[in-house]
Amino acid sequence: MPFFHDQDRSGLRRHYVEAWRKHRAGTPLEPLEHQLVAAIEQHPEYHPLFENDEQALGRDYTPESGQSNPFLHLGLHLAIREQVATDRPAGIAAVHRELSRRLGDPHEAEHRMLEKLGEAIWFSQRTGRPPDEAAYLESLRQLIGGRR
What we know:
Blueprint (H helix, E strand, L loop, with lengths): L8 H17 L5 H11 L5 H4 L2 H6 L11 H17 L5 H12 L2 H22 L5 H11 L5
Helix pairs in contact: 1-2, 5-6, 5-7, 6-7, 7-8
């Protein structure tokens, strides 16, 4: 399976739809497809979307529509999980553990964290500079009321 960064919007979306289709059919999944399915499973509100190829692949999600982009949302979940697994930026795994403990739900902890990731990405795009890992990590630490 090609890496995400080599894909256009339709290609990226097709990966999600295809992984969900294979999962529902009981077909063996590639490792990345397992990750996609795990994220989709936690969002039953998105299941109908992934069962309708044309709707999933062609729809635009704009701020004006009032609906969040499910592909962006799930992609941010995957990014948080990768950051936690690799502990990059250093300290993010500890933040996730503590936030998960306090909230009693690792998925809810991811939701809180992905808001901060989204803000860091938006700021980076807006300024044209690389993301500031230290500022991002500090914003995450503020979720648990800690500074280091």
